[in-house]
Amino acid sequence: MINTEILETKIGELLGNFYARRIQALESLELHKTLKRKNPYLYRATGTVDASEIVEELLRAHISSSDETLFGNEFFEPLAKWVAKAAHPDYNVAIAHGEGIDITIETDSIIMGIAVKSGTNVFNAQSKRKQALDFQALRRRLQKATQRFDPIVTYCYGRKQQRTNSTSPFQEVAGQATWELLTGESDFYLRIVRLMKDKPAEHRPIFQEEFDKAKNRFARDLLLDFSTQDGSIDWDKLAHYNSGKEPPPRRRSTTKKALD
Question: What is the sign of the dihedral through the CA atoms of 209, 215, 218 and 222?
């Protein structure tokens, strides 16, 4: 069993990395780039008329989509690699063994090639074939090994039921089963949640401050470039910027130099 104090320290470190990346993403976020990826017709159709409401929805939608990727990259994947080594000091555990393979765990009888994914909805037909090819490449590199080779895709949360007669080129496990595979502990998936303790609450005020700054920047730029003289949203300009063949140039510069 991985030492609780050491594990808590690692979880705290990874949460710090996650929040640092969240804040960095907010600091670099620009309204005009975000508007290119959003649906202005939807905001119009739902009767949104307030600039602050549009800005809030834009930011919330961006955070919702980006947080999943950030959390996988900054928390789940490095935690999975770390616990695999920490839980198996007597095994040969290699990290980032090859393209598409994050961990290999070698025992006397088995070599497990493990790809770490965040949630279970990551594969389409093409990416699944690519993952299978990555496992095949690793199998070829290990062809002189006498142990059985087990290709496994692990999902850090959720459920994934795979029939025993499945024709899938690799095994898939998710949630509790993933962390039990990596650590040998059936309750490890609960230890992760418990050992976060108050750390998210400690990070949240700093993140909220950066969120408010981004909201203010977005509101400023939206009113500068996409509003009428009376402060109403200029939907023609917003739709043209998003969907016109050639979007118009910005009316005003919002760089720091211009604001100074």
Answer: negative
Say how far apart CA 176 and CA 188 lie, in whole Å.
7
Token pair recorded at residue 131: 């993952």
Q: What is the pTM of this model?
A: 0.85
In a domain, 257, yes or no: no
Query: What is the tens place of the pLDDT at every residue in 223-259?
Result: 999 999 998 999 999 999 999 988 666 555 444 444 4
Give the alpha-carbon dihedral of 218, 224, 226, 228, to 10 degrees. Answer: 140
Q: Are 158 and 119 in the same domain? A: yes
Q: How many other β-carbons are positioned within 10 Å of the β-carbon of residue 95?
A: 14
Closest by CA position to 79, among listed 167, 158, 2: 2
Say which residues have a Cβ less than 8 Å from residue 34's Cβ, sequence separation at least 6: 58, 62, 218
Distance (Å, whole) CA 105 – CA 240: 54
The enclosing domain of 187 has a CATH number of 3.40.1560.10
DSSP one-letter string for 186-215: TTHHHHHHHTTTTHHHHHHHHHHHHHHHHH
Domain boundary among 178, 197, 216: 197
On whether residue 224 sits in a domain, the answer given is yes
Q: Which of 197, 213, 238 is the last residue of a domain?
A: 197
Q: How many CB atoms lie within 10 A of CB 159?
A: 11
- State the residue range of the domain holding 221: 1-86+199-250
Can you tell me whether residue 174 is helix, strand or coil?
strand
Number of domains the chain is built from: 2
